[in-house]
Amino acid sequence: MNSPTRIRRKDASERRERLISAAVELFGSEGFDVPLDKIAARAGVSRPTLYRNFADREAVSVVVQQVHLDRVRELVAQWADRDDAFLLAIKMMAEKTLSSGGFEKLLASRKNPDAHTETFVSGVAKILSEPLRRAKAAGLVRKDFDTSKINMVIMMLSGGALARTQGDRQALDMALDLMTAGLSPRQGRG
Length: 190
Hints:
Blueprint: H1 4-30, H2 36-43, H3 47-53, H4 57-78, H5 85-99, H6 102-111, H7 115-137, H8 150-160, H9 170-183
Helix pairs in contact: 1-2, 1-4, 4-7, 5-7, 5-8, 8-9
């Protein structure tokens, strides 16, 4: 038999999950500055409920970034048998950055880097370290490229594809081809 406490805990957990889903969606479509009231409304909860779950905007941001890290981790696990998993992950993150308008958000965030941004970047580097090692071993990526440059590559790909129109993947694919050529080992370059 379900006790009232167990039902309340389940309801609280469901509300928290709705808040996280709403935050992921709205951060992606409207950016970091989306009003917290809008997140609460999208989740179907009150503002006090939002604050019972998250102390402030930074706490919401940390959880949203964890959702994105988990997604990268899941995809990399699916591609575990592929030498090009690193390049696939870079392309996926560039697509996500571009489709969410994240390129402009990333540029703005570079002016005010937060500790959680560094945590996200280091999390991506940790997740992609093994795929990067495999890509280097397969001759797909230069030996002198390291995980500290991943964020730069994502920004470059996103910036190179900014001219694309809705649904047109050609610009992003071209930017990826150019970036891949730059990452590829060349005679005398690693």
